[in-house]
Amino acid sequence: VGLALYAGSLCAVSGATFLYHDYCVIGAGPAGLQAAYFLQQAGRDYVVFERSHAPGSFFALYPRHRKLISINKQYTGKSNSEFNLRHDWNSLLSHDRRLLFRHYSSDFFPNADTMVRYLEDFASLLKLRVQYNTAIIHVTLEKNEQAWNGHYFLLTDQDRKTYKCSSLLVAAGTWVPNVVNFPGSEYVEGYETVSINPEDFAGQTVLILGRGNSAFETAENILGVTNFIHMVSRSRVRLSWATHYVGDLRAINNGLLDTYQLKSLDGLLEGDLEDLAIVKDKKGKLHITLRFYLENRNISAGIDSVTLPQDELDNFATRAPYDRVIRCLGWKFDFSIYNRSLRIMPGKGNIKKYPQIKPSYESRGTRGLFILGTASHSVDFRKSAGGFIHGFRYTARAVHRLLENRHHGVPWPSTVYPITQLTNSIIKRVNEASGLYQMFSVLADIILLRENATAFEYLEEYPAGVLAELETQTGRKAHSGLFVIIMEYGRNFSGADKDVFYYNRAVGEAQHAWQSNFLHPVIYYYKRLPTEREMRLRPPDWPLPRPDAIHHIVEDFLTDWTAPNAHILPLRRFLENCLSTDLRNFFAESCFLFAFTRQKLPPFCQQGYLRMQGLVGSQELRHHAVQAGLLQDYTHTDISGDRPPDSHDGSQDQLVGDRAIPVRPLQHLVNAKDE
Amino acid sequence: MSAQKDRWVPSLFLLFCACSIPTSGSAGLQQEQSPQHYFSGLEAGKASLAFFTPRVSPGAQPFLEQIESSAEALQDYGISVVKVNCPKEDASRYCGRENALRKAFLFRGNRLIREFPTDALFDVNSIIANVLFALLFNEVKYVETLADLENTENMLKGKSNMVFAYVPATGTAEHRAVMEAAFVYGTIHQFVLTTEAAVLKATSHDDPDVSSAQLLFCHCQRATDPAQPCRRTALGQPLTLLNIHRHLKLMAAPLVTEVAEDPEKVSTVHLQLGLPLVFILSQRETYEADRRTAEFVAWQLLGKAGVALLSRDLVDLNVLHRSNVALKTPDEGTPIQYLVLEDTDEVITLVEDKNKVKPIQEDEQEEEEENDEDEKENNNQDIQDDQVVEAVSRDKKRELPLEQILVLTEENFHSSLSEAARTVVLFYASWEAVSLAVLRSYSEVAAHLKGTLGVLLSRVNCWDWPGLCSQENVTQFPAIRIYKEGQRPVTYDGMWGTEELSSFILLSRAPCPLKLATMDEAEGYLRGEFPSELSSHPHTSLLGVFSTATSEAREAFEEAANILSGHIRMGMYLEDDALTLSRKYSVSPPALLLARDRGRSVEGIALSKHISQDMVQMIRYELLDIFPEITVSNLPWYLQLRKPFLILFSAGDISQMESKEMLKLAKGRAQQAFVACWLNLEKTPVGHGILRTYFSTVPSLPVLLWVNLHAGGQVFEFPSEQSVTEVNILSWLEKLQAGLEIPSSTLSEEDWKPPLPAYDFLQMMEPSVPELSLHASPQPGDTPAQHPPQSPGGDPAGGDPASLEEPSQESTALEGGSPGRGLRGTAPRLAARDKQGRRHSEL
């Protein structure tokens, strides 16, 4: 593949030759390819650098036991392609229907090789510009006032070839294995190299360090052949079905929990790995001791001189010697290739494996550098899905839209609707949108109201964390208030120690929707855009600051929020009260009556009937409306005129519906979560 | 009714207090150590009710409790209630005798007025009624026979008025109300009370209901004729203190108030008490007669409305000179109605009708309030008030006949489009009510067009195929498009009705414009000889005539035809002899020929505008009728003209005479400043709704109205006594323009506000999410003004957040107590859930 093909321009600065591109993407994994797809669709000048000879090199090696734990749901009973992406965790976004993962595998948990094949197809079918066998080993900045961000990015590859870009998208993932250094850590095997052949573990006693999915996956593989497996980690195991976080231990890997609690010798321990030490005895068995005992002692002096915990505490839990110790501690971002001038800093606390970024995915240290994919997970670590394909495919699109606006004057895509479509547009999105669903509490749909609230503009999947910067980031104006549509779990529902199966956990009645626990849509209303200060001061665990009004659509067992009375009606009332208008639909006959008896018409009549698009309605429907007391039947009216108007007079009153039939009290039982 | 309730509440409350704290006694009760103490402390002229109890109280407790609980109420009337303890050894008159202990004694000063046996004092009402009755012996005269009553009445004639009350029994709530009223008004009016049904019957002409209490105000002060009984005005409402008070106030008001100021500013006791005020508009010349009329009316309306005599000479009224009566209602903001009435009966009917409607509404409201109390959570917010949504959900179980309509998917969409000459596609969402309403009409269209060649009806559910819909650029549903191979699809932009849609589809089959090749064809077209696809369309045909040179106009016309395709039958003639054709209709090309009534009249219009949009406008305008029958489907076209409507409401077809006159009027001035039209109530029954809004009573039909739809909203009624002729109408319009007529009604200017409040989740969340309030926005004044219709305390859901929390805790506790409870007893739990549960238990 000729490089010249990709080169947007070739320029010479101080004697060195640079290959220039507007956008450089580091890494041709799922996130890099996803970003490349959007850049390609927009016709931008870009290149993707991949150190390996093929895309998805991480997946070529990991997971070691080759079973992906991202679900590949073949059937949902629906043909809605957008909805179906809610249950497809592996596909990338594209217009090409061939590139759906279900065409590649029928396994619910597919093999990692399939992912590699899929990524290869994605890159080649879409003709993405990927430069393989190019490992970027150094990134630095070159100040230039002409540049988009005040500087260019200079990238050097393993052959000392240099590339220059205006914007840098880092989709390199987290691939540097986490290691712990303690006395005897040289005896520890790493997840990345350990044997995956169970026979190699026959009759052995194994200690696994770590309690993530890789640790349990390793244990699962050898569970049947070992004497027993012990697993040690600092914190307690976190189960993903209790935390609603896909990065925690998935049920598919938790065989060891089963054997531990069913008294089959395997076990789980908590302890700080930093305090550990391992000593090897003459037979090659590994003994656990504490670093504390080894201080000022020469470890090479031999095991006999080392104090073991069981010498003092003869029932010490891990007193049995191990044949093997395996480290499964996950990976971190490769910080080493960035020049200090880029100020790429690790996060603090439990997100130290990720670089620090803003909620817009832009690096905190360098303007124009965006982190995509797994490495961008600091934004929603242990909360949402931004570290996984089914999450970052949407954040990559969001970053692309931000860039289109910033560098190319292409505002965030939006659709303008008349206000009568307000309820519908929200209902449509909360029922099918996959980005809102997968990236819950992170990506939000934004409705910008036009003046006088006669129309609105709909923006999809904007990062909620940068709501305050909406106008500059999207190029759209929010002068008359806005709605933010986001999906949330109940605030105190999920968590490592929570009982997520308690009785009465599901809310069924719309008026108590705010207590909903399962994922449900929430709509925030602001009369004006929140400021950055308000964003900063928002309540902890809140995706957004205090709104002027809020609406929860009650959780639904089928995640189908189209029930006219339980879902749509309360939403309509909320929207009506925010806008101070009447958003009901009316038959043409009602609009006709209003046209003659009122100086103003409701929006539905204004935007429909008055524009010759009145809803005539069939005989049956009008009959039903009359029966419901919402429409007056004048056909049998006594027209002699001597009868005074009776209490049925005044159809406006009728339409307020004071005589409508109350909702059947049992109707919401369809929402019950329990079987 | 409500006043009665009000009265009951405090007394019930007192009862409750007394029962719950029997030892300490109620607030107004005094205690005395001994009879000596008591009698020595009595003040002259001050009344007190005493009862004597031995230290160890025997079984008379319930009676004592009642007395104790009336103490406070009696204190309001200056009567103290005293409990006198009898020392053991005391054997005086009150303490010593056994039966005295079962009685209560009423003293004024230290004079015993009456002793009451306990059975006369069974509850608070009876205690107060009897005590006051005894004290007001002079003010309230008790009569047993009609003769007694007549005697009293005669004595009062010319001196003072009399209040005559009948109660079926003493000691009742009504009796108490009468006595309480007598306490206040006893010095002004003579009160007369009876329990004899015969007396009541004798005073009344019709058969009164003797089981309920009655009160009559007898106007004896004005009575001069000793032979005649005083005029009487009955209290038409239940006897409560409030109603009696209100009645007496009304009776005391002057019969006729003379006013000399703007009626808007006038306020009388009637208006303050919620009754209407009738103005009799008087002039100097007719003053005496008007005054007599006013007095006559006032007597008729006594207790129902006030009557004022307004001298027009003193007040400059901007109303019709003919108006003679005005009606002012107590409702704030309702403008004064000026009327031309011929008969005093009409005035009375007018007021009585107003009053008749009102109590019904009040009752309804009360009922509603009661319902609200019953189920506080149901503020109707969860009741569907959208007519379309509700109608569709009521119809959802009916299976629609959709066999004729092809279901399109992402897979078969493009292949299906090529199967028929034309494919009509309905894009809809299966969850959306308006879509489903249109789908119902669409299925009727399908039945209607069954067997029509060359048209395929189909549908796409955008909920199933969002990709297809966005690819076809359908962002709103419903949408109907007609696809024709090789052409841009046409989007339907007409009414969502079966007829309109069918006609559109049928007309769309022919090319628009239809190109006519020869002069014969063109003339045939104007005569109404069309190809079969076009023949079903009943309306006016249009023919564009162009010379071969006028390409600009022709192109604009073709584009306009494209836009109007499906709505209007359009032809085009473009040949060398176009001039010859157009000359026949005295225009020259480029020109439009309008053929109405199958060619019976052809009108030629020169085309001056060469921009397609303008041409569309012009064509649409030209096709509007001069004197149309307004229907639900054609009104929007005429509303677009933004002119006032001169509209004739007719029970059926209008008569030829009316039609002729109106047509003359409409044609008379080509550039009319108004839309002359008529409405057939038989065909458009919703017109009744319009008339009812305009008039309190439906006027006799036909009725001609001037409706200022776009400016001011006034509605004027053409005088019914005049005949509908061009001349009459024109002179009426002139008067109207000159401001000499009074509108019969004015269209409401009200905005369309949210019909009901929303759930205030923000408020509900606050107690459980303390960080919310902590992190409230920096400006505390900027609180969400989200729920304007919230009445004080009327928001049951948000009103008491604490009560929200409670039941859920309760129910979890309940569930915790019986873990693993199965499905047994689900039904009772479901029933109970409504009360306690906001959360589901297992199902």
TrEMBL record, chain A:
Xref: InterPro entries: Auxin_biosynth/cation_transpt, FAD/NAD-bd_sf
Cofactor needs: FAD
One Gene Ontology cellular component: endoplasmic reticulum lumen
GO molecular function, a single term: monooxygenase activity
Biased composition (Basic and acidic residues): 636-651
Pfam families: Pyr_redox_3
Gene3D superfamilies assigned to the protein according to its UniProt record, in alphabetical order: FAD/NAD(P)-binding domain (3.50.50.60)
GO biological process: ERAD pathway
Key words, A-Z: Endoplasmic reticulum, FAD, Flavoprotein, Glycoprotein, Oxidoreductase, Signal
Disordered: region residues: 636-657
Biological function: Probable flavoprotein which may function in endoplasmic reticulum associated degradation (ERAD). May bind non-native proteins in the endoplasmic reticulum and target them to the ubiquitination machinery for subsequent degradation.
Subunit structure of this chain's protein: Interacts with SEL1L. May interact with OS9 and DNAJC10. Interacts with TXNDC16.
Family designation: Belongs to the FOXRED2 family.
Protein name: FAD-dependent oxidoreductase domain-containing protein 2
Naturally occurring in which organism (per UniProt): Dasyornis broadbenti
UniProtKB/TrEMBL annotation, chain B:
Basic and acidic residues bias spans: 831-843
Membrane-traversing stretches: none
Coiled-coil blocks: none
UniProt domain TXNDC16 third thioredoxin-like: residue ranges: 255-346
Keyword Heme: no
Acidic residues biased stretches: 362-376
Protein keywords: Signal
TXNDC16 second thioredoxin-like domain segment(s): 133-254
Top-level lineage group: Eukaryota
Record's keyword annotation contains RNA-binding: no
Signal peptide: 1-27
Annotated ranges, domain Thioredoxin: 405-505
Record's compositionally biased regions (Low complexity): 792-802
Protein name: TXD16 protein
Species, as recorded: Dasyornis broadbenti
